[in-house]
Amino acid sequence: MWGGVVALHRLCYLLRQRGANAAIYSNPPTPDIYGNSIVSFQPDIAIYPEVVNGNPLNARHVVRWLLNTPGAVVGHDGIRGDGVYGHDDLICHYADRFAVNYPQSELLFTFDLFPQWIHNEERESRWRQGDICVVRKGRNKKKEERILDARELLLFDCQPYFFGWYARRAEHFYSYDTATWLSVQAVLCGCKSTVIPDDGVSAEQWRESHWLFKHGIGYGLDDDYGDETRDKVKPWLAECEKKSFATVDRLLERSNALP
Fold it and tell me: Which is nearest to 108 in space by CA: 116, 96, 100, 119?
């Protein structure tokens, strides 16, 4: 399941926890891991990711959630979001770098640690062997010769259950994609975690723009920062989760104020 899909489903779950009558609209249906209802109806308020153009559900009110920079990725229908929104649309962004052209946008982010699958069990981790890697959005990068022997995980392998199984047994996780949540999950599984840098982006710049990844992850093959800050990961994520809940509460506040 892609990160954007998890973010949307998690948001629906958190909204329902707060008493909102929220449901997932999915066409074609997407498996839901939070027990959200998946229905087809005309909602009062629709929350669209940035890959959706217009208002296909004909909702009375529209919320635009920038899970990436509009136009950067395509939706399941193969169409890129045009970033053209209505004057009355509420706009939210998952990260500041996605909302450069939308000064009225407010932060809204969700994440899930999947503790039932993403954890470090000593009985498994003491037998760690080999390295694993993912390419994903880093497919245009040159392959690093020093990690060519790492097992590449494909999309199916990156489902939380399966990824947890691999990461609890591997010694090191490498990601050519500098923005995948898998880098954090690997750390939580007791695996060393390293991202392959983007051209022209320093470690400081990367950690500033990807602040959820602030601790526990090395930026480049010779960066020891991940090992040096591994013990800070869980406290930092607990702090981030509180901030996440606050952004969801703010969305409800803004939505309830709509006429």
Answer: 96
Residue ranges of the alpha helices (H) in 112-256?
Answer: 122-125, 160-167, 182-188, 203-209, 225-228, 233-256
Query: ω into residue 259 within 30 of 0, thus cis?
Result: no
- Residues 80 and 122: their CA atoms lie apart, in Å, by 44
In this predicted structure, what is the pLDDT of residue 121? 74
CB hemisphere CA count around 238 (13 angstroms): 5
Q: Residue 33 and residue 114: Cα distance in Å, rounded?
A: 10
- Point out the residues of the chain with pLDDT beneath 50: none
Give pLDDT, residue 19. Answer: 93
- Per-residue pLDDT, 1: 57
Per-domain residue ranges for the chain? 3-110, 122-233
| Identity of the residue numbered 92 | C
102/142 Cα distance (integer angstroms): 33
Q: How many CB atoms lie within 10 A of CB 153?
A: 21
pLDDT digits (tens, 9 = 90+) for 191-219: 999 999 999 999 999 999 999 999 999 99
